[in-house]
């Protein structure tokens, strides 16, 4: 889960509006602030469409070339794994990371956006767990060893970091026990690991696609081997590129100063979910 970074409080004044109403102006911005000089709303619409395209590609790949879906221990059970991991660890996780970049989140109480941010991340984690159950169930049913490939190690590290990130974020920002100084201290760590986990998720998905193609399109076991670039290979490679593009654009949006929610003095800027304002 990624949240806005510190140092966002000057945004409204630089833009000539009230706190949280407008993005930052152009004066005084560092050179990198010119990155992605496009309107936010069209960018978000494009990114949403790209996420849906990633989901459509992975579902079509598993349905058309890998035999569809089932929950019976067969290879069709494995097919739930790539679909759910892309849906959870990439698309929904990216959406959770961008909650505070949406213009409606720039004004008014911050607490509802905290809840939405945490709920999207929790849903992503739930899909991820089901995806892991699918792959371990298939491996156990087919007597395939678990956790021996780089892809599996990378994926497990990503999921473990994700679970720690969510628990730490929930404890620090939504429960009433962490003092304000501790939340302020942890916030940049939360932001850093939010972006790091997204990068690891993209790397895990791309390595998993590549591994699956190598296993499925071996010489002598497929109509055309992987090195001949059959249609399935072209389609799945394209899926990998779309996932990388989605991840890169999410990280660019997170890094763009103009699109960060300005820090203000709203009543719940530092208020946890299950407690009164401190």
Explain this structure to me?
- With 278 residues, this protein is mainly alpha-helical.
- The protein has helices spanning 11-15, 40-64, 75-78, 80-97, 111-141, 150-173, 180-216, 231-255.
- Helix 5 (111-141) runs antiparallel to helix 6 and helix 6 (150-173) packs antiparallel against helix 7.
- It is globular.
Topology readout:
Elements: H1 11-15, H2 40-64, H3 75-78, H4 80-97, H5 111-141, H6 150-173, H7 180-216, H8 231-255
Helix pairs in contact: 2-4, 2-8, 4-5, 4-7, 4-8, 5-6, 6-7, 7-8
Number of strands: 0
Low-pLDDT residue spans: 1-28, 265-269
Alpha-beta classification: mainly alpha
Gyration radius, rounded: 21 Å
Q: How many helical stretches?
A: 8
**Overall average pLDDT:** 85
Distance between the termini: 24 Å
- Global morphology: globular
The succession of helices and strands, N to C, reads HHHHHHHH
